[in-house]
Amino acid sequence: MPQGRDPLVLGQVFGDVLDPFTRSAAMRVTYNSKEIRNGTGLRHSAVVNKPRVEIEGHDRRQFYTLVMVDADAPSPNSPTDREYLHWLVTDIPETLDASYGNEIVSYESPHPTAGIHRIVLVLRQEVQQTIYAPGWRQNINTRDFSAFYSIGPPVGAISFNCQRENGCGGRRF
Q: CATH for 7-163, among 3.40.50.1360, 3.30.470.20, 3.90.550.10, 3.90.280.10?
């Protein structure tokens, strides 16, 4: 990968799921003590349990909403359920992890049946407010969701690739 290229641009997360934004918060995502970076590849068995998501900062008076979606559901060639909601946590205090937030939609592990799926975790800054769970998980639009609740633009995001246990091959761009 060329130096200076944003992995969210290269993986087409910008455009498919997010609009470009300026990162102003740092988050650390770990599955079973493995830290996830943009573009990390994982099998389904590695993501069965929810990850630890820590928000780095200095002020516990800041709160964040975390949204985790599959940008390629049910398959990368036909993402008719894009964005599939895997997890929604609100009111996460800065300097702590998502377990201190309010889990609105419980974690459902990604379980790709075909191809390599882009799983995107988006962090948005918020004011504490009541946010309700959508009535379904498929076809959630994080842009519309954020606009509806006036949460604001993303402040951080991480995208990793996930495929079934015996999957092989790569993504075509």
A: 3.90.280.10
Report yes or no: 119 and 83 within 8 Å, Cβ to Cβ.
Answer: no
pLDDT tens readout for residues 109-147: 999 989 999 999 999 987 777 899 998 999 999 999 999
pTM over 0.85: yes
From CA 81, how far away is CA 96, in angstroms rounded? 32
End-to-end C-alpha distance for the chain, whole angstroms:
14
